[in-house]
Amino acid sequence: MSVLTDRFGRVHDYLRISVTDRCNLRCLYCMPEEGVEFAPSSDLLSYDHIVEVVSVAASLGITKLRITGGEPLVRPNLDMLIKRLAAIDGIQDIALTTNGVLLAAQAEALRAAGVNRVNISLDTLDPTRFRFIARRGDLNRVMEGIEAAARVGFAPIKLNCVLLKGVNEDEIASFLQMAKDQPLHVRFIEYMPIGHADENWRNHYLPLSRVLEIAEEQKLQFIRKDGIIGNGPSEDYMITDGVGSFGLIHPISDHFCQQCNRLRLTADGGLKPCLYWVDELNVKSSLNDPAALRELFMRAMDIKPLNHEMAAKLANTELSHEPTARRMSQIGG
């Protein structure tokens, strides 16, 4: 039973672990195209250190893990870390978030090591637009990764689509059709101001009410699903005249903080109670000391705020805390 309960009564049983801030893409909503400064390898938590932190977290009631980055599959021998994490007493579920480019070659090893589920970023179904959004890479390799994920038995397979006004909103109908035709869970995600909140973000922000409008226009048959598909904050819908489903993750237009059950561990050792705010507790000074690590997790509960206030950022109103300056790739997607 989890002892990680914050001041607002939210029980935490989920830890997202970034294993690297490096990525083989440069998606326009995540990081600049050039001049990205990555953390030196020596600054990253070793696999031994990650296993140590997770062992303590599991003793406090963490049962679910998600491995993220950057792009986690660029870190060598990731399946070896997964195998060790899966062996920790109390860990019941391990998921992976990836851009899919390297997934086809690693899917079988990751499944054998203990990954149960995958989330694959897919913001467009058009190869030319893929190069515009990701600034490099090949859409075909992502599609091969999706096929490999199905072949080795990952379930459910979630596709994460960040909607950008004026960029890919015209593909909402195509993604909904994909969810109707294939046993996939397509999740539309609002563009978040993580690490930046300039006019470019405001200009490209699109509320997800537009997805439901287009679903109605398509005469798609769908019903709201109770519960959660996996561990995420998605508002989910089953397609009753198809084989898949879709979900809406709207941290800005309808934030889900009241159900938050997660903590984040950055690749360089920051324990973050909330994605958006600057607060981090560095685990490095507490390594090799289980009691100190336990105290750090309890401290994270004490400082976790009620919500992230991204909607206030969109409205240009005053915030109660200081937003992080770190981008999503530096925190863990």
From TrEMBL:
Cofactor: [4Fe-4S] cluster
Domain Radical SAM core: residue ranges: 7-224
Signal peptide bounds: none
Cofactor: binding details: Binds 2 [4Fe-4S] clusters. Binds 1 [4Fe-4S] cluster coordinated with 3 cysteines and an exchangeable S-adenosyl-L-methionine and 1 [4Fe-4S] cluster coordinated with 3 cysteines and the GTP-derived substrate.
Single annotated GO MF: GTP 3',8'-cyclase activity
Catalysed reactions, as listed in the record: GTP + AH2 + S-adenosyl-L-methionine = (8S)-3',8-cyclo-7,8-dihydroguanosine 5'-triphosphate + 5'-deoxyadenosine + L-methionine + A + H(+)
Protein name: GTP 3',8-cyclase
Lineage start: Bacteria, Bacillati, Bacillota, Bacilli, Bacillales
Gene behind the chain: moaA1
